[in-house]
Design brief:
Blueprint (H helix, E strand, L loop, with lengths): L2 H17 L4 H11 L3 H10 L2 H13 L2 H16 L5 H19 L31 E2 L1 E4 L5 E4 L7 E2 L5 E4 L3 E5 L11 E6 L3 E6 L5 E4 L3 E6 L7 E12 L8 E4 L4 E4 L3 E6 L6 E7 L2 E5 L2 E5 L4 E4 L5 E4 L4 H4 L6 E7 L1 H12 L2 E3 L9 E6 L4 H10 L4 E4 L2 E4 L2
Parallel strand pairs: 1-8, 6-8, 11-12, 21-24
Antiparallel strand pairs: 2-3, 2-7, 4-5, 5-6, 7-10, 8-9, 9-11, 10-11, 11-14, 12-13, 13-16, 14-15, 15-18, 16-17, 18-19, 20-22, 23-24
Helix pairs in contact: 1-2, 1-6, 4-6, 5-6
Length: about 400
């Protein structure tokens, strides 16, 4: 690629690095560029500093980033050519990168500001304020005899149940292989418990795939016998149900049930949540609460409130609903309290709001694979102040 293309490519890699979405190959390319000479290193250090990102955020508030790309790209390729110095290329690339990085990180806009002011707080420390890392693939398997097995990074051999079912644990998933139970046999039940700071994938004996979010658990038979396939959920999980018209699949929670034949859907039923939510991505499901029942179409969401009332929302942003399953933290016009409920579970922390009464609303998304300090820094750009003590974060304004 020519020098212009290379600098713009480096800017994109820098944004991906800050988002936590850079691949090993891209990281190697970026490292090679940084280590070429001191000028590259100084520019990189500037681009990844809080103060520089702050200026980028302020520019983004007043510029259209796509128009900025077009304008600067035009100047670089059409106005300078080979006669212009490397300094000019750096200068224009550097002018654009903070805007790009702010956009690439999904910088969160203030939707409401009581005083109509924009106050920004920037942390200029060269080291991160927090060493709290994101969650990982981890779970605890409870077998039918009560034995508990820790799953995740540890390498385990194949397990088996008394009914002949084989269990294959991997670093990120647990796979069941059909056992020998017959209809009428007593079923063996297992539970997969995902703690705070964890996520894990489960493949049941019928081929149904279940992605389990932090602080959630699923209880299920090792083999499905009888006329229905029933599992029990606490927390949040995403289901891709193996089709079997003669044997409906039912997800039971303490607030309501979801009945399907074969489809993709997300269920959020945390005990401390204000409501139960079942969101249909593909196919058809029936949601039941008390004596009421609703059949959903793709893009609809069933909501059961604290009193047990069932309602249906239309045209739900399904990408946002399943963002956690796709490795993202994503929200739209959400309060800081709502956002921190997700953050608490994923980073295994405690967030305290002693006197928080802000009406700020945030929209954005970023990778779930970044350290907590990167996420906190973004909210500091919006004027939110925090005190971090171990794994406890206090919002102090």
């Amino acid at each position: 690629m020519n020098p212009t293309e290379r600098y713009l490519h480096i800017s994109r890699l820098t944004a991906k690095l800050l988002k936590g979405e850079i691949s090993p190959e891209e990281k190697s390319t970026l490292d090679e560029w940084v280590n070429e000479d001191n000028a590259n290193r100084r520019l990189f250090e500037n681009l990844t500093s809080s103060a520089y990102l702050e200026r980028g955020l302020q520019k983004r508030n007043s510029y259209d980033s796509e128009a900025a790309w077009s304008s600067i790209d035009h100047k670089l390729e059409g106005g300078f050519g080979e006669k212009r110095s490397r300094f000019n290329l750096l200068k224009y690339a550097a002018a654009l990168i903070p805007i790009l990085i702010a956009g690439g990180l999904g910088i969160y806009y203030k939707m409401e500001e009581p005083q109509g002011k924009k106050n920004y707080v920037v942390n200029n420390k060269s080291r991160p304020e927090s060493a709290i890392t994101p969650g990982s693939k981890q779970a605890v398997l409870v077998l039918s005899d009560g034995k508990r097995v820790t799953l995740g990074s540890n390498q385990l051999a194949e397990l088996s149940e008394s009914d002949g079912t084989f269990l294959q644990p991997t670093e990120s998933s647990l796979i069941y292989k059909q056992g020998t139970s017959r209809i009428g046999d007593n079923l063996n039940y297992n539970s997969l418990i995902v703690p705070r700071g964890g996520e894990y994938k489960l493949i049941l004996a019928d081929g149904t795939k279940v992605w389990i979010n932090s602080e959630s658990s699923v209880r299920y038979p090792t083999v499905f016998a009888g006329r229905e396939r029933e599992v029990y959920l606490t927390g949040e999980a995403y289901f891709e149900v193996a089709k079997n018209p003669s044997k409906p699949f039912i997800v039971k929670t303490d607030k309501g049930d979801v009945k399907v034949l074969g489809t993709h859907f997300n269920v959020n039923s945390y005990p401390d949540a204000k409501s139960f939510k079942a969101t249909l991505i593909e196919g058809s499901v029936q949601v039941n609460a008390n004596a009421d029942g609703k059949i959903l179409k793709p893009g609809q969401q069933a909501v059961i409130n604290h009193s047990g009332h069932l309602s249906v929302l239309e045209d739900v942003n399904t990408d946002q609903v399943v963002a956690w399953k796709n490795g993202l933290i994503q929200f739209h016009k959400a309060s800081l309290v709502e956002i921190m409920q997700q953050v608490e579970r994923w980073y295994d922390i405690k967030v305290i709001f002693p006197n928080h009464s802000s009406s700020l609303k945030f929209t954005g998304k970023m990778s779930r694979n970044v350290n907590l300090d990167n996420l906190i820094e973004i909210f500091k750009f919006q004027g939110v102040k925090f005190r971090i003590e171990g794994k406890t974060i206090t919002v102090i304004n």
